[in-house]
Structures are given as structure tokens and as C-alpha cells.
Predict the structure of Metal-dependent hydrolase.
Amino acid sequence: MKQIIRKVLLATFIIIGLIVLFFFWAKSPNWDKNDYAQIRNFRIDQKAVSDSTLSIISYNIGYLSGMTNNTSVRPTKEFYQKNMTDVLSHFKKYKVDLLALQEIDFGGSRSYKVDQFDVIGNALDFRSGAMSVNWDKKYVPFPYFPPTVHFGKMLSGQAVLSNYPIEEHERVELSRVRSQPYYYSSMYLDRLAERIKIKVGEQEVMFFNVHTEAFDHNTRVKQIEFLKDWFLRISEKMPVVMVGDFNSDPRYDNAGVLKFYEDDRIGAMCKKENLAKASTLTYPTDKAIEQLDFIFFSTAHFEVVEWDVLEEFGQVSDHFPVYTKLRLKKIK
């Protein structure tokens, strides 16, 4: 009997040890952190845009997983290829100056090791692009069951594709959720603000691509307050545009995104009286019920020419993209 107990205990210790080893291996990164912020040139020979208008799309592409995003479904490689073909076709119709993307994969297993940033940047002939990694793990065991749908090797983040020269690029981590246990937070992504400085003619413009916390309300509000303060400080020196998935519907209790509507120095693609109308909802794409995606700008420097929620993109992602054309005012 004692021998059986010893064997059971030994087997238990071995199993626990293997689980611990797997955990520390799985949460380790694929890339050096110094490589988490990069600028890539696609068509650097392309003449820079010198117009006073900026056309912008902000799009959480959900790694092109459509409505399967974060569900226990493993789409086929052909599914992703079709979604890439579809999204490129839609992008080519708009030919914007700046394309800000969230939840874009840089070669992770869940999207069959395709560097979506590289494919989109080259296919659309952008001058250059900035990328920021926000999720880098050897193995992410999510969705939890069955194991065949695990994300596996994770390499994902945010990116901005630009037809303007990119003069600066910075990856800034936003505040983390503190209420989750260690094993959860160790596997969780970083929430980011990606900052680039571009040159529009002779005018420098600061452009932000952000993706705030989705699940913890207090953390999200804290992040949005930080972003608003940063926006206002920089807008005293130069024009500012901030776009992205704010994960904050205006109808939420204490909705963080409404803080951007409380200051006349900040303008929005969608005026406050039009918030959360049927034509402004962006999520989910099978039946949109929330407005999570926004484009903001400094009112001292820009005015809105036109804007829209691009529902024609369909269910390539679980979000619809938002589009805006801004005109630079003559700065006295």
C-alpha cells in the first residue's frame, strides 16, 4: 500500500512539475522586446502626400477571424485567405492616407503564420508602416477547450500604414488590470497606444492608434483618462489625431469615451448627439449593438469633411471599420 501511495505521489509531483514547466515556457516571448516597435518601408520611393486633407480608416480587423473571434472555432486556412482577399478589395476602394489596425497578426499560429501587416502594406502600396506588438507568447491555451482550437504561438498587435513620412514611432503600454491572478495576467496581452509623428506637407501631425481594455471597466476608464490628458498636452504644440478601438460604448455606466466629448478642444468624427445611433454602431458585425470605435482630432487644427461606418466590409472582422476625412485648418 505504501509503495502505491509513493508512486501516486511521485506521479503527481511529475505532473505538477510538467505543468509548471509548460506554463513558464508558454508565457515566454518569441521576440526580443526591443523588436516590439518597428517601422517597415513598403514603397519608400512613393511621393509623399502633400494635400491638406487626411483620409483615415481605423479598423479592429480581429486578425481576419470574422465572427469566430474568441470562440471555440478553428477556421480553415482558406477562410483566412478569403477574408484577406475581401478586406484588400475593400481597402483598395478607399485608398486612404492612413490605415490604423488593431488585433493584427504578425505571424502567429491562429492565423496560419501569415504576417498580415506585411501582406496588407505591400498589397496596398503604402509608403511605410509602423507596427507594435502587444501579445507575444510561445503558446496561448485559449480558447480553453478543445485543445485543437488553442491559439498556440501568439504574435499580434497594432499597426499604422501611412502614405506620409513617419518621423517618429513609439509603443506605449497602458495601465494593466490588477485584479486578475498571476497565471491569467501572465498570458494576457498589453494594451497599447501606438504613437507616430508624420509630416503632412510642411506640417507635423501626431497620430495615435489605441486599443484599450475590453473586460475591466475601471482599468479602461483609467487608460482613457490618460489618453485624453496626453492628447490635450500634445495638441497645445501640434495637430493631433487619435483613433482606435476604445472598447467603450457611450451608453455604458461611466463610459470612458465620453470624457473625450467633455472638452471643446477635442473633436470627433461622430457628434455627441449622433452617438449610438443605428448608423454609428460598430460591433458586432452580425448585428451591431455597440459603438466601440472612434476617431478624435484637435479642433484647433482640423475640421471634418466626411465620415462613415463602413458596413460594406461585412463579417471579415467582428468590428466594422470607421472612416474619416479631415482637413487641416490654416494655422495662424
Observations:
- The chain has two domains: 1-28, 31-328.
- The first helix runs from residue 2 to 26.
- Residues 266 and 298 are 5 Å apart (CA to CA).
- The mean pLDDT is 95.
